[in-house]
Design brief:
About 45% of the residues lie in helices and about 15% in strands. With about 375 residues, the protein is an alpha/beta fold. α6 links the parallel β4 and β5.
């Protein structure tokens, strides 16, 4: 019988869940992978659902009534559910001699099991919300839940992050030792066709926005900036994928949701990618845009400074700075050669860093080192 990795995740369907499952299978082919979908187990337990609903109202009832917090978000951040999932993980994996290590996606629950090294892969921490622009109002979860969140990182053998800002958050806001944290980045979550930057035509002035959360993703800021520059660039186009509000503006096309095939076509046709988010845990669409050799215009928040370097593969502006956003777009729209140069730099960075094979190599290297250290420590006692 093969040794196993016990992989805990909350939901099976999000694209990141499928990407990470494939990453683990590819990076550790010698192990069998047992995947535990926590929500499937939680929703089968009617007593647990009722108990947690009551816990939500105890911990967050006022916040929900005042509209500061959604019930669904609060449902997964109660101390009651945290402790129940902790015990559930122990029942599933405790005492199993075939499990070499556990691996959890995201940091909402603690699925570490006594005597087994646990590795966490997350795109965010809760306290990192405090580091965003003052434009974003932050309503934190309960202090009791945040104290539980800290135990996730303390109990982990290593914590993998998708961006350097979250690595800093773990060290500076949660007091984690730097040696326990490693930024391994992430790859695209959709089966996109990679562009050939040598064949891409950058002559069109075509800006692309891809995002569903219109306000948080900076959609209104982008529309206002486009209105500013459009008289100077009447041949420019702005295509918005995700929302569809039904109004018509010169040069602007709103498509709503599109298929993967349509999205591939839009990435190929675009010559600039712009999403000036006001908060952004990671932003996988930026990776997709870079894979398609697009220069990127984004806000200087979250993971974006890892992805975008001013004057190299795009432009970073301050969140909410519409005049700065308009100036950055104007600069790229005015210079075809700059669009091509920045786009090719984006493509190279995606090839080097933002792909799942590279992530898997870094994870395997760290996990092997940790397991060797753990085995050595055990053998000396």
């Amino acid at each position: 019988m093969r040794d196993k990795i016990l992989h805990f995740r909350i939901w099976p369907n999000p694209p990141i869940s499928r990407s990470v499952e494939k990453l683990l299978r590819d990076a550790f082919p010698e192990y069998a992978l047992d995947v535990i979908d926590l929500w499937e187990l939680i929703k089968r337990d009617k007593g647990l659902l009722i108990g947690n609903a009551l816990a939500v109202m105890r911990e967050y009832g006022l916040d929900i009534l005042l509209g500061r917090l959604a019930f669904k978000a609060a449902f997964f951040r109660t101390v009651y559910l945290f402790e129940r999932v902790r015990r559930l993980a122990e029942r599933i994996g405790g005492g199993r001699e075939d499990v070499v290590f556990t691996f959890q996606l995201q940091s909402i629950f603690d699925t570490h099991i006594e005597k087994l090294p646990n590795f966490v892969y997350t795109d965010h921490t809760h306290l990192a919300n405090l580091l965003y622009s003052p434009l974003m109002k932050v309503n934190l979860y309960s202090a009791e839940w945040i104290s539980r969140e800290k135990t996730i990182y303390n109990n982990a053998e290593r914590v993998f992050t998708r961006s350097s800002n979250i690595s800093r958050s773990l060290i500076e806001q949660y007091g984690l030792a730097a040696v326990k944290v490693r930024c391994v980045y992430a790859g695209p979550n959709t089966p996109l066709e990679e562009s050939d930057p040598g064949k891409k035509d950058y002559s069109a002035k075509h800006i692309l926005f891809v995002g569903l959360d219109w306000e948080r993703k900076g959609g209104p800021d982008l529309l206002e900036a486009f209105r500013v520059i459009y008289p100077k660039h009447p041949d420019a186009r702005l295509t918005i994928v995700g929302p569809h509000f039904g109004f018509s503006l010169p040069g602007v096309t709103m498509l709503g949701k599109v298929s993967v095939e349509e999205l591939n076509h839009l990435y190929r046709q675009a010559t600039i990618f712009c999403m000036p988010s006001r908060s952004e845990p990671f932003g996988i669409v930026f990776v997709e845009a870079m894979t398609h050799a697009l220069p990127v215009v984004a806000a200087r928040i979250g993971a974006l400074p890892d992805m975008v370097e001013n004057g190299k593969n795009g432009c970073l502006i301050e969140p909410g700075d519409i005049s700065g956003l308009a100036a950055a777009l104007d600069e790229l729209l005015a210079d075809t050669k700059k669009r091509a140069r920045f786009g090719k730099a984006s493509w190279r960075l995606a090839r080097e860093r933002y792909n799942w094979q590279s992530v898997g190599v870094l994870m395997r290297e760290t996990i092997e080192e940790s397991l060797a250290g753990t085995n050595h420590a055990s053998s000396t006692h």
